[in-house]
Each structure stands twice: as C-alpha cells, then as structure tokens.
Amino acid sequence: MLANALTGLKVIDFTQVMAGPTCTLCLADLGADVVKVETPTGDLSRALSPWVNGEGVAFLALNRNKRGIVLDLKQPSHRQAAQELIAQADVLVESFRPGVMARFGLDYASVSADNPRLIYCSVSAYGQHGASRDLPGVDGVLQAVSGLMSVTGAPDGEPCKVPVPVVDLVTGSLAAISVLAALQERQRTGLGQHVEASMFASAIALQHVSFASYFADGVAPGPQGNAAPYSTPNEALRCADGWIMVAAYHPARWQALCAAIGAPELACDPRFAENKSRLQHRQTLLRELEARMLAHPRAFWLEKFTAVDIICGPINDYAEVAQSAPFVEAALAESVQHPVAGTLTLARSVLGAVGERPRARRAAPTLGEHTREVLAALGMPAGAIDSVAATSPSQT
Known about the structure:
Blueprint: E1 10-14, H1 19-29, E2 33-38, E3 51-52, E4 55-56, H2 57-62, E5 66-70, H3 76-87, E6 91-94, H4 100-103, H5 108-111, E7 119-124, H6 139-145, H7 166-189, E8 194-198, H8 199-205, H9 208-217, E9 234-239, E10 242-247, H10 251-260, H11 275-280, H12 282-293, H13 298-307, E11 311-314, H14 318-323, H15 325-329, E12 333-338, E13 342-347, H16 371-377, H17 382-389
C-alpha cells in the first residue's frame, strides 16, 4: 500500500503556514514519521480563520499524520535538541527565509557534515540564490508577481486572485516530488543533497503553456474570464437556471454540440468551422450558443451533451460538490478526532493506488503535544527534556 510506502522514513519539519506543510503532509500521508517543529507561539496557520474550538482549520487540514514538538531555536539547549533530531533524520524540510537556518547553525552545510545521507529541502518565496532570495512572499503576492493574477478574472475587470492558495499548494507538491527524487538518488549514491522549491518558480510552472504561447508570439495574454485562451467552445455557458462548463472544441464534439442544440448549420459556418476561426469570432459564437441554451435548464443540457460524449459539467458550489457522485464515490472526505477541536470532517489524501488511499492515522498535533515523547526517543536525559518541554504549552 502506498500509505506505507515511506514507513521508517524520519522527517523533521521546520515549516509553517501552507507551502512547506503541504510538502511534509504528502510525506506523512505516505507513511513517513514527520516531526513538526514549532516555535513557542506556534505555526502562523494556527491563527488563520476559521477556527474550531480555537483550533485553526488551515493548520488542522495540512498537519494530519504528524507529531508536534516545540523548540525555541534561540536557546542553545533547544538548538542542541534540534541538532540531535536532524542527526537521526532522513529528510529535513524548512521554510525560513534563506540564511535563517545558517544563523542557528542548522543550514545544510552544517548539518550534512554529521548526517551526509540527509535530504535537506528548502522552501522559500524566490529560491536560494539571486538578488530576490531575501524577499518575503505569500501566496497572493506570488500570484501577482508571477503573472497569474494578470490572466485571471473577467476581461476589462480588476486583477483577480485565485481564491485558493494555489501557489502554496503546488510549491509544496513540487517540493515533495523533489524530496522523493532525492531519496531515489540516495539509493544509488548513499548521499543526501540540498533541494529547493521556490514559490515563484512553482507559480511559473503552473503557467507553462501560457508562457510558451507568450514566448512564441510575444503577446502577453490577458484575462478571459471562464474561457480557455487556446480553444472554443471551452468555457462556461449560461443555461436557464445557471451555468455549465463545456469543452467541445474537438472537431467531432463541436459538430455534436451544434446538433445537440438544434443548430447544425453553425458547424458549417465559415466563422465557426475550425478552432482558429472560432477563436477570432468567439463572442459572436457565444451569443449564438447561449441564445439556444437559455431555453432549457442545466440538467437538460448536461443529459443531452453527455449522451453524445461532449465533455461538460455543472459549475458547482462546495455544498453541491460534497454531495456529488464523483466526490462521494471517491470518498474524498473523512472524519478525524482531535483532542480539542473534536470530530472534524476534512478532505482526504488523494495519494494512493487503485482501490486504496491513505487515511489519517492521527489528527494534527496540539502545540507541543509530542515534545517529551520525541525527545525521550532521542535518549535525552530527563532534566534536559524538562528544560526544553517547559516551553511547550501541551507539556506544562
């Protein structure tokens, strides 16, 4: 089972908010023993709205299957505990600004001397090199500077951010891929290495096709609302009671769409016969399509289009998604018991093999919940554990 694929792998997690925790969440869901290290004030995502019994939902969502400890790296004894953890680890993931770990003596050059097999992953806004490396960044800002906000939203509208933290999530996912690749390389060489994930570079990766188009013709794309810039019809179309998304730009599907709406003549119209000409006359085409589709509700068109293999789907809100057949059949939600927040329903891991998917082995940790447990496993003396654990709210 892929849920046990990384069993025995020891990961030390010095990340917070969303990008870095997404990386370590992937590793934890695949069976790794992830120890999340927080400051005495905790991961910043604990303070993000909304909350359940005072516990931040963002933190709960991204930190399942991890154990949590508190270390104040400004204190020598806590840095010593961190060094002992790292010396026994397979993977370290950190999301400080470049240079911060070096100030604590926990940078790759320092810790790899004692643990040459360590895979050390640095997650940052702009990467580990260059003039921009010291700049701070969060998801919204990276959506802006990477060009993503310039192509979202409605034409002639204000710049529009993707409301989900898409740059954070893709950065964390790419970081996990890099870690897994480095582990495979270690199988051959016996040595670890320093890998990185840049939020800026990851945001560019989201736009590979768009940048390829820009480099090809030198024209900077702009926002097109719900429409794909490279094909049509491939956008949201209005029905009598709402909207559906339709992708019928393939020649056979375009002809099937025209027949389904009772307008076979559109397929022969020189303005609409091929994708290139349809793009040139997109607004006229949409008026022709919606003039016919407004006569019937979504359910009518979805049934009619599906019957002739037109790719389509309703534009659902979250309530509709949670009740939809694909969501229910794939069991994409699960209940987790948290000691403070109580019973939670969260999105499940999507990693897995056919017929199986990892389940949450444990809820996200309370602040410092496992400090004593983790330090005791290192063989630290009881007095040293007491000194460090005194800063852990869950241990006092």
